[in-house]
Specification:
The longest helix is centred in the N-terminal third of the chain and has 21 residues. By secondary structure, the protein is α+β, with helices and mostly antiparallel strands. The protein has a five-stranded mixed β-sheet. Strands 4-12-9 form a three-stranded antiparallel β-sheet. α11 packs parallel to α15. The chain is globular and about 60 Å long. The protein has two domains: about 140 residues, 2-Layer Sandwich (Uridine Diphospho-n-acetylenolpyruvylglucosamine Reductase, domain 2); about 270 residues, Cytochrome p450 (Orthogonal Bundle).
């Protein structure tokens, strides 16, 4: 570590955390306002939970360098809805064992298997959008696309199972970051019921898995930390996590990218210059056809969307011992939230401006970790990046998109950034 001096941990002085929680959910500048007042590390309380917010390359690097001194942590609502067996709620050997098993679904070999089906799904959306007479909320289309990729392509579901799963999954997702009180009629109670239905359906899917569709056959012979085969109850909780990790954040990134293309006047022409030399569909090696070596502008655009509008506001760690971050001592048993959006815009230069070129000209000095970092980096990272690249090229090569005027394009941030009016637009075939 670079910093050894122990500094005092600034505190907002919140007692119950009710006022802080209200501002957290209503004020998109919650973290930045407090960073401006207290510095790059501060402690506060949200509804009884003490949280330490951090930003900046030094503090984040110090945190990721001390993997053995911290463990994964989620708010109570997320923990309960994901389940005790989920690798997101596991630490140590139990986490590593399940990560090895589930990671097989996102290997290079697996991505090659999925890629042709993703191309077909992109083409289906490109054919469907121009047929609609009324303005289309593209955010919903992106959500259904991202869900279909993980549900059909990875899990191998058919259309009927996919639709039923989607409806329950939307109920489940809406309560992830909520007050975890299972009072009848509340979003959390509805989410718990939806969770049970999802797990039962996923058990059926797992029992019917074979090598002819999806990738679930890749999970065969998966072992836990003791060397025993994972039970179906264990595996379906990992699949539930995959649905969330491979759906919500990818849909958010796709929608925010399309929003940027439609509202930033100089970006689309700059991107289309590069796309003139890209073929659709890719002729070979679909999973790598549009990577940074082949499409540097496209990948710079994706990176800038991830920088300005990261699909998650941050990630959490809990300290197992006292640690020092950027010169500030953090006590044992404290929950830390890495404030990604605030970190990505903090520093010298035009960091509040949307400018993808910064990722090509060497001017960006901030290290980006939109998928988290260390041993808990998002397993679905490679699949998400593949989906985004294929969707952008496939859609823009086939369809012209026109933004509807007089709509609210500002972003709601929970559970992931998305335009408040759904990104309304019309489309016509090229």
């Amino acid at each position: 570590m670079t910093h050894k001096t122990k500094g005092r941990l600034p505190n907002t002085g919140a007692i119950s955390g009710l006022i802080e929680a209200t501002d957290f959910f209503q004020n998109p500048n919650f973290a930045n306002d407090r960073f401006a007042k207290y510095g790059d590390i501060f402690e506060t309380k949200l509804i009884g939970q003490r949280l330490i917010f951090i930003r900046g390359d030094q503090a984040i690097s110090d945190l990721l360098e001390q993997q053995n001194a911290v463990e994964g942590w989620w708010p109570a609502s997320v923990r309960k809805l994901l389940g005790s067996r989920s690798l997101a709620n596991r630490n140590g050997p139990a986490h590593k064992a399940r990560r090895r098993v589930v990671g097989q679904l996102f290997s290079g070999t697996a991505l090659k298997r999925y890629s042709p089906d993703i191309v077909i799904m992109v083409n289906e959306l490109a054919e469907k959008l121009p047929l609609k007479n009324d303005p289309t909320p593209l955010a919903i289309s992106m959500r259904r696309f991202a869900f279909s990729v993980i549900a059909k392509t990875v899990l191998g579901l058919d259309n009927s199972n996919c639709e039923a799963l989607f409806l329950d999954f939307e109920l489940w997702t809406k309560a992830l970051f909520s007050i975890p009180l299972a009072i009848p009629g509340t979003p959390f109670a509805k989410a718990l019921s939806a969770r049970q239905r999802l797990l039962e359906r996923l058990k059926t899917v797992l029992a019917e898995a074979d090598g002819r569709r999806g990738g679930l056959d890749l999970l065969a012979d998966g072992l836990d930390e003791h060397g025993f085969a994972l039970t179906d109850d264990d595996l379906v909780e990992q699949l539930l996590l995959l649905l969330f990790a491979g759906y919500e954040t990818t849909a958010s990134s796709l929608t925010c990218l399309m929003r940027a293309l439609l509202i930033e006047d100089n970006i689309k022409p700059w991107l289309m210059e590069e796309m003139e030399d890209l073929s659709w569909p890719p002729q070979e090696n679909i999973s790598t056809a549009y990577d940074a070596s082949c499409a540097p502008r496209l990948n710079a655009l994706v990176d800038e969307v991830m920088r300005m509008m990261p699909p998650v506001g941050g990630f959490f760690r809990k300290t197992r011992t006292n640690i020092i971050l950027s010169g500030v001592e953090i006590p044992k048993d404290r929950v830390i939230q890495v404030a990604l959006a605030a970190s990505n815009r903090h520093g010298e230069g035009d960091l509040d401006r949307f400018r993808p070129q910064r990722h090509l000209d060497g001017s960006l000095k901030t290290k980006l970790v939109p998928f988290g970092g260390g041993e808990r980096v998002c397993l679905g990272k490679a699949l998400a990046e593949l989906e985004i690249r294929l969707m952008v090229v496939g859609l823009l090569k086939q369809v012209r998109l026109k933004l509807i005027t007089n709509q609210d394009l500002s972003l709601q941030l929970i559970p992931s950034p998305s335009p408040k009016d759904g990104l309304l637009l019309t489309a016509e075939r090229r």
